[in-house]
Amino acid sequence: MNEALAEYFLEDALAVFRKYKKLAEDAMAQLDDEQFFARIDAEANSVALIVKHLAGNMRSRWTDFLTADGEKPDRDRDAEFRIEAGTTREEVLNWWEAGWRSVFAAVEPLDPSDLVRTVTIRGEPHTVVKAINRQLTHYAYHVGQIVLLAKHFKSENWESLSIAPGASEAFNQSMRGGRETP
Description:
Largest sheet: 2 strands, antiparallel
Distance between the termini: 40 Å
Structural class: mainly alpha
Number of helices: 6
Strand content: under 5%
Shape: flat
Radius of gyration: 19 Å
CATH topology: Four Helix Bundle (Hemerythrin (Met), subunit A)
């Protein structure tokens, strides 16, 4: 792999991981504790459950990333979808932070030559690039769920995390430095 492209990939992957972490945190910050733990129906996950699942996934996938299978023998994925009575928001957010520490501790030290190495997830071989992309898409999927749930619970009190409806043209113009498009 071209070294410059590999360096760009690693920088971009880290930037995207940080972007999705912040997006989820900004959405979660708008929720009160009841909304954070609420399920919209019996089959749906709460924000807390999604966070617990992501944290478990992150710990499993990124601990000893280059040397051990990404599905650790001690991971209990099914338990990630249960919240025990008395679990606090602070506890859940501590899991979240610990999961992200695992991500960054594994990805930040990678260098371009690592991208073509092979790692395994559930015994399936992946290049490091494929493994990173797999996790980026998985986290984006769940962060989207967190945002959707937060937006649902906040309804008309939702504070947009992107370009607000009706504000696209003003945003585009600001990106062009106030210039009109020819």
